[in-house]
Each structure stands twice: as structure tokens, then as C-alpha cells.
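RECORD TYPE: protein structure
NAME: Alpha-mannosidase
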Amino acid sequence: MGATVGACVQNVLDSLVPALLKDENRKFIYVEQAFFQRWWRQQSDMIKDTVKGLVSSGRLEFINGGMCMHDEATVHYIDMIDQTTLGHRFIKEEFGQIPRIGWQIDPFGHSAVQAYLLGAEVGFDALYFFRIDYQDRDTRNGTKELEVVWRGSKTFGSSADIFAGIFPKNYEPPPGEFYFEVDDTSPVVQDDPLLFDYNVEQRVNDFVAAALAQANVTRTNHIMFTMGTDFKYQYAESWFRQMDKLIHYVNKDGRVNALYSTPSIYTDAKFSTNEPWPLKTNDFFPYADNPNAYWTGYFTSRPALKRYVRMMSGYYLAARQLEFFIGKSKSGSTTDSLGDALALAQHHDAVTGTEKQHVANDYAKRLSIGYKKAEELVSTSLGCLSESGSNSRCSSPTTKFGQCPLLNITYCPPSEMNLSQGKSLVVLVYNSLGWKREDVLRIPVMSDSIVVHDSEGKEIESQLLPIANVSLNLRDRHVKVYLGTSPAASPKFWVAFPASVPPLGFSTYFISSGKRSASISSTSTLNSQGNESRNLQVGQGRLKLHYDAAGSLSKYSDSKTQFCLLSRITCTQESLPYFKVEANFEQKYKYYIGQDGSGDDPQASGAYIFRPKDVVPIKTDGQVPPTILRGPILDEVHQQINPWIYQITRVYKGKDYVETEFIVGPIPVDDENGKELSTEIITSMATNKTFYTDSSGRDFIKRVRDYRSEWKIEVNQPVAGNYYPINLGIYVEDGSKELSILVDRSVGGSSIKDGQIELMLHRRLLNDDGRGVAEALEEKVCLDDQCEGLVIEGKYYLKIDPQGDGARWRRTFGQELYSPLLLAFTEQDGGNWANSHVSSFSAMDPTYSLPENVALLTLEAGEHKDLSAPASVDLKRVFPDNKIGKIIETSLSANQERAAMEKKRLKWKVAGPPQKENVVKFMIDGDFMPVRGKTVRYTIKENYPGKFVPELTFTQVEKLRALFRPIISLPVPEAPPLHYVDNSHPAPSAAFLPPSASSSYPTQSAAYVHHPSAYVLTPAAHLAPNEPYACPDSQPPARTAQFAAPAYCVTTTGHLYQASYQAYGPSPATYHYAQAPPLQLVYLQAQHPVRKHVTDPACSSDPNYDANGNDPYRYDAVKSHYQETTSGRAAAPHEVAATNLQLVMHYGYAPGSEGATRETTQSSAEGAASAIYSHAGAPATTQAAPLVYAVAAAPHEVAGTNLQLVMHYGYAPGSEGATGETTQSSAEGAASAIYSQAGAPVTTQAVPSVYAVAAAPANL
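PREDICTED:
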């Protein structure tokens, strides 16, 4: 917090080493690696060896271990992970140590993401911090709940619990004057009785009194004193000498036991008590240290720096990918400098905007230097890839690409070139996401006589938009400020055109001079509000914005087809019935006048604190009429709100959101009032004081105005006390629709009134708030000794969805905001680009794209029902040009294998009733891996000598995250919903139906579907109410059975249900939902004719059954079973909720129960498993045949199947002929594949009635 005069980390470390060497009992902890590494590089080998000895003996311990102690309100979780990874990597490589403890003692509030993602998921056993709301602290002191088990994620549940300790007073020594720096005034321990100031008894009493006071607010008989604070131990011996004496005399006194310790030792002591701890959920925002001091201003402070950090974060992500593709250079440019600068920028006094101006300038300078080096790397990488079309090693491409980091102020020298004499501007567009991007690019150009072509030379649709004067003025001033020279002639137009870019790859577009096809390209038509009708509408396609006669936004409407809403996929069938989402709303600006520190309470509004004195609405009276630009790609509305606020609202063709760009500043302070500018969206939605904000760009957390779930809040600041940090977005809902707003940087925001959302965009204040900066937050930009207040440019994005649908957009588009398309430019003479370059590239298999809910991050459980589902990722197709030698799941900071981390993790007891947990399953490369719903990190290493293959050790493949959606009720609808099923749109979730009349157990269904054809639920109108769909287990119908009409059978025991889906398309064409209560079997069938089948021969006279009801075709290749145990769905090892299984068949006989003896588990040399079989209620069966086999539906590869646990009825296939791959066709057009390995042992599973099919041996 703030700055410290005379602070010197070098002195601390220089004096620490000899002090620790004097006594092996002494201990010390160190946190921020950026400072330590700088010191470390200057040390001799002898000192380094000495320090390594101190670390290995436990006298010096690294905790937290990141490059810095990052903020938790204004940082994105990916940046938190990256900076922590850099620090942990250094500690592991230099010392072989893995930090165990989180130490976030100074950030101003704490996020839920810190608890589970940067706590438990990096291997921490505990997290300690100080700053929580003063009312919360008072409550916890009274209930002894300063130490809790913090469960930061509903998805992770208890698997990511972490012990959290909150300091009772501060993070300094306890009350009683125990500061022992050479210039401190605390009494030393004078133990020479010959001296007049002998004070051993007094010092012991002071120490014991402090210990007893802290023990009164702490559970168990262990307490921790933090003996130090910021920049102390400049002369370490002065501290240790006094602590040596205190420990000696306190222990001699005997009332308490004192010892040198560390947070790790303290955590182990707490854990050993087996104490149950109170449970904490959600986060610790907002933070206030007194009634009028809410630390919510820094959520927005220094908005330009916040945006710069966010821009560099997305660029760093893309640059690292490109660096990986061509191989990291040992001598050329790398991304290291940018990574280091970004790590430092996450500090809790950096991106927060709570530093002095010269320090903020230094952070920006370091980012600029890092960007310049990364820019060179990006240019080289794109040159290599565009020339070779592969990721082969390359260091000196012929093609040089330029980039435009100042594009936000309309400055892009490469695009402002003269396009005469046959020259073309080549625009290479790189996509760092794992799925295909469709976006609109906007590039400044000099002329209106241009055309745009795609990589195939085809002219594509484009639109010219005149550049606003306010944008040009911003450009002219700031380019000279930043670069020292005035820009050349200004561009006159933006050219906008749609771009389609493959995953982890690029596309190329060409802009050249020429006559534009009127049917394809156009110049925007310009209208003023004065020339429009009173009912002004702006919009492309279904999305419309309505403006009133005064030029104010008044209504949002989006007409979506019923098909879209049901299928959750992009709808193009405009002829289908419309479903309209609309809301009346206003968009306004206002500013808060900041308290100046006068009056009875001197607390001012400043860099940290938001304390408004008054609010002033910015009136729209007398505004210049808005200007409307219309065209085939987008519409724009330009508005000069007042002399220092300009706004552009955009609606794009084919996009269902609104983009709002704002140019704000300089904020006037001539009236000597500091101002804090906010924009607000006001609707008529009844939101019941409730809104949702993100946690470090990840989870969304429910907020209720003027409410805290763990104590009764005394509301002193109704505005500042309801502000929360926003890194991704904020939304409100009213039961029928959701209003979401996403941001391009961290800001503060809230819903101060029902139906309203507000965002604080900019702050300019004239007083310091007394929290350490000692400088007012008054940012200025100076040119030729003329200084003006800072002008910022930014964007936010708005969308209204039906209730429950907004999560998809917030997650997918939010990821696109963090990882924007990267543009690079070069020029060419003539049209010979295709002769020497590739115009399109993807590092992934061109036919493959990651699912929407798998990227560098994915969705949170309980949000969108389609995307919050298990996901599968085929890494061989993600990295087709690289041999993957080994995949290791690691901690999130990649400093240990996850299995080892989980093995040693402390499992904390929670007071109160047990919490319900989610079960999630996940597949990588064809193999099922049971994991929690989480972000995971995989380390991929190469072990093939003689061939260069990049190592992905710290590339975040990243977090191939599986998410769970609880099973939902799916009754037979009156109007069947249509779905598409293919690789991008998996089968629907399993249906959970109530218990039947004869069974108290709920039933569950599994959808086995994997085919790109539509299917529809067949209504069961022919059944009487409450009648079951099928009969108890018996022989299935013959394979040749044909029924002209739907048939069904009802028996007295009727407790099996069968619902069928009919599919239309090539074989295999029919997939059935099969449902059963526990310990009952039903058949899962697939066959070409679309028919209903009777499942009980007693109800059928079908000639294909013999007189005894037996089926002569009982060993049909397409007969499969599954069932559920009585242990409950969550505990069932064959959970089939929300799965995407392929059709599974078997050829041969299933085993009989007579061979079932005991559980046996064996593995084959190839690492493959075999099948487990048994009858209902029978013990697990051991297969004696020496073979390993697995089955899958043709044409799918067995390694790619997404099998859970499936059953078969009958006998296992014999070993005869089972020596390789066998394909057997069935009469229904489906085929089965048997993969076996003679002589390989088998695996069984101790789950009655379960038959599992495993993957094929690797060597077949």
C-alpha cells in the first residue's frame, strides 16, 4: 500500500542471511520473487549455496511465491496464474521447493478465485490475509471465526477447500510495542539486572497479554504473531536478537509457549488438532476500514493503465503461442520481457492505480519495452508461418509484418500506405482461441477507392465509415505525446469487413485500390437525427435499438426465432415464429463529486477510496443531434454527450450485442471539485436488489444491495458500499430476461437501483485519501509544457437474453474480449502473394475445433445448461504436427504433478452438515478421467530424440475443463423440440424422471447419440396416463421384427421406462433413450427401420419368438444394457449425466454369473483395460479368457469413443479369432469392432451389474 521512504529490499536480504546462520532455530519467510530474483542475480556462488542450505533446512521459506503479491480486484485470473507460475518456476528450478502457503496480506479485499484457483489449485494448504471489512472483522472476532475453511467455488466444492486465516488486527507485530528495527522506538528486552532499565518481567507480561488477547478470538491453542511488516529487517540481527530473548524468557515464565515458526508450521499445527472450522463461501468484497472509507475507488483508478495491462495480457497470450509454433529463440526476441513486465503489473499497487504517477509511468514503460520485444517475435513468427505454412523452425523470414498498438486512437501507419501503382495492403489476422472466429475488422485507410479481397482473391463485402473528428483530434495529440513526432496526413475512413479465422491460426485479407462492386461494398449513408422520423431505429437483422425524438436511447429489441431458443444454436430460418426479447431502457451519464476531506470526517475520495459527496446527472438538453451511419455491415450512432464525453454506439450485422465506444476527458476541475464519471443503463426490470458480478474474470457471484450474508451490515455509504470490482462483466435478471454488460478493462460497478446497472469509467480527484500514496489522483498528459487531464477511450458491450441464456455469451464473448484478434500488416506489389505465401494457417487439425466450453478457460457449473457439461478434447488434433510423448496433469502453476499434490493436500474438516457435491467426468484423447469440475493444467513433454518438437511444459493447454449440470426433468413435450447432433452440438443431457409407482428410486436415462442428423422426441400419446413405456427385463424382439404401428405393453409390475428418439438420416439411424430404476435391466438398441419394439414376449405374439418366449437372435450384435445401482446418482461410478456417448455394440456372448468370484484388477502391458461383466445383483465377474478388447460403433475409432459404463447381456466373446481388429456387420446396417490382444490380462470392477468397455491396446 503506497510507497515507503528509505525502503531497500537488498539490505533486508543482505542482513538476513548472516542472521539466520547464527542460530538454526531462527526462521524467516519471503514472498515476492521479482525483488528476490534481482538480488539473487547479484550474488556469488558461495552465497547462493548458503541460501540454498537455509531453504532446504527450513530456516528460509518461500511462501506465496509469485513474482509479486498480486491484487485480487482489478486483475484477471489468467494474469494471476501467469505471474504465480513465473515465480513458482524459479523457486522449483533454483531450490527444488514448492510453496505451500498463500500470503495475500496487503491486497484490498479478496476474491473467491484467489481461494480455489490461486490457492488450492496451485497446491496451497492455507491462505493468510488481513484486509476484510471492519464490520466483518468485528463479527468474526466475537464468534472466533477469523480462521475458516474457504470454499470459493460451487463447482469445485470441497475438493478445492483451503484453510483461510484472517489476522485479528493487522499484519504487523502484536499490540505492546514489538518493533525492533534500529530506528524503532519500542522498548528492547533489557535482561542485564545491573542496568536501570531492566525490564524482562514487563516485556514478558506485554507479550503474554498480547498472546492471551489473540487466543480469545482464535480457535485451538495455537496462534500466530507476524513479527515484521513492510521493509523491516533492514538490519535483521536487531530483530532476531530481541526475539531470541523474548522466546527464552516467555518460555521460562511458562504461561505460554513461544517458538520461531512459519505459516507452514502453524498450518500443520492447526490441522493436527482435527478441529472443524466454519465454512466461508463467496468473497471478501467490498473492503472498508471505517464507516466512510470503502476501498472501491481503485476498481477504476488509472483506467488507461488498466486497459494497457489488459491489452498486453491478450497480446502476451497470442505471442506465446506463436513463439511455441516456431520454437523459442536462444538469442533473438522472446516474450520473456513482456511476461516479466505483466507479472509486475499485477501487483496490488500497480494495475490497481494506487501508486504515485512516476511509478505508474514506470510500469507502463516496462510494458512498452516488453511489448516491443514481443512484437519482433510476433512479426518473425508470422513471417515464418506465412512463408512455410508449417511450424518448422525459422528465424529470418523475408516477409516483415508491422503492427498497430495505437489502433485505439486511430493510428496505424501500415494501413495508411499509398495503395497506388498496384500495391496491396496485406492484413494477416491471427486467432489465439481454440475455435473459429467470425468478427468484423475496422482499419483506418486514406482513400474511399478501395476493395477488400479474401485469401482466395474473392472480393468480399466491406463498408467505409468516415472517421469522427474527435477521434482524429485524439490521434493527433497523443501520437505526438507518445512518439515525439506528429503523425502524417490523417486517414479519412474506417474500412470495415467481416473476417473468418481458424482456431490457433490466421487468415489473410488484401486491401487494394480499385473500383468497388456496388453490390458488395458501400460507403455508409449518413443521416442526422433531425432528418429522421421520430421513431428512429438502428440495427442489423433482428437486433434493433430505438431512439426517441431527443436522440436518447429508449428501447432494445431482439427478435429471436423459436428454433434458436430451443436449439441454442445459431438460427438462420427467419421464417420460423419469432420470440422477442425487449426492454425499455435509458442510457445516461453522471458524475459523483468526490469528498475533499473537509468537514467533521476528513476522509477524502482518492486513489483507493470512493466517497461521493454528491451526484450530478449530465443533462442531454441542448445536445448536438446524433449522427447515424448505416451500411451493410454495421450501423453507428455518434453522440456528443457534452464537451468532454463522446459516444459511438454500434450494431453489427449478424451480431446480437451492442458495442458502445466512449471517449471521455479531460474531466473538468475548474470548479475545484474532483469528479468520478459513471454511465448507467436504466430499465424497468424488477431485479429485487440483486445483481451479479464476476470474480477475477471467472465465476459470477450474486450480490444483493445493502446486504452481506455473514453479518448485518450498517449502511453508511449506500453507493460506495455497493460497488464491486468488474473484470469481465455484470448482469441483472428479472425472471424472464437478463441484461448483461461486458467490459474491456477492470472497472467498478453496481446496481444502485432495481433494473439499473452503472459502470464507473474515469476518475479525476484533487485530494489524497490518506492511504499511502500521498498524491492526488489527477492524471495529466503534457505536450510542449501544456498539460491537460487524461482522455481515455474504451468500450463496453451490452446484450439482453431470455432468462438463463446470457451465460453462453458472457463466457464465449468474454474470452474473445480477453483474447482479441491480432492484426499484422505488410504490403505486396502485384497479386503474387499466393505464389510465395500461405494465406491460411491453423496449428490444429483443420477439421477440428475445441468445443465452445473448452478454451483457455470455460464455463462455471450451474450457468448455461449446454456449455456447463462434460467436454472432450482430442490433443492429437489440437497439436497435429507435434508428437505428444507424455501428458502430465499438474498444479495450476505447473510446479508439481497433480497426483502428488492431491496426495499430500490437507483435507480440512468443516463444521455443520455436509455439503452436496457435484460429480463430473472428463475425457482426454479418448480416455475417461474422473475429475472435478475445474481448471486443470497439463504439462506435455516430448521424449523422441533426434527430432525437434517444442515442449509445452508451461503452455496452458489449459485448462481442459469439464463442467457439470445437474440432471433436469425432461417430460415428453407437446411439441417436440428439434436438435442437431454433431461434434459441435452433443447429445442432450440425460433426463431425470421421478420414481415410478413401484419403486422409490429415481430413474435415469442415457443418450447414446453421435450422428449429424436431427432427431425428435416421439410423443407417447397412445399411452394412458401414468402407464409405463415398457415391461420388465426380458428378451428383446428379434432382429427381423417389423411393426407397422407403434406397439407397447403394460404389465402389473411395470417399473421400467423406455422413451425413444427417432432419428432421420443414414445408418445408424435410431437411438433410444433407455431408463431404468436401480437393479433393473433394459435394452439400448439401434437399428435402421424406425420402429417401436415390444420388450416383453409375454405381451407379444410376434412369430420371431419361440413357444417359450425365447429369442433365437438373443446374441444380436447390437444388444447392449446399462443399469444404475442403489447407491444414488452422485455416487454411482457409471454416472451418465450429460454425456455424449457414441453408439456401443458388442459381438459374441456376454459372461454368465457362474464365473463371478471376486474383484480382480489387472493391467495389460499395453496399458489397456478389459471389460467387466455381471448379471443384475451378481458379484463382479472375472474373465478367464486371456484377451483385452473394446468395442465401438463404426466408423468411429475406439480411441475416440466417450464410453462410460455400459452393460451387455449374454457371454463374453471367446479368444478364438480375437487376435486383431474384427468388423462384423449386422442386418440393421450398424457394425461393431472388437479390439483384442491375445495373452493380455484383464481388469474387473467391483460394481455389481456393471459392464465397462475399455480402450483398445496401443499396439493394435
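COMMENT: The two ends are 62 Å apart (CA to CA).
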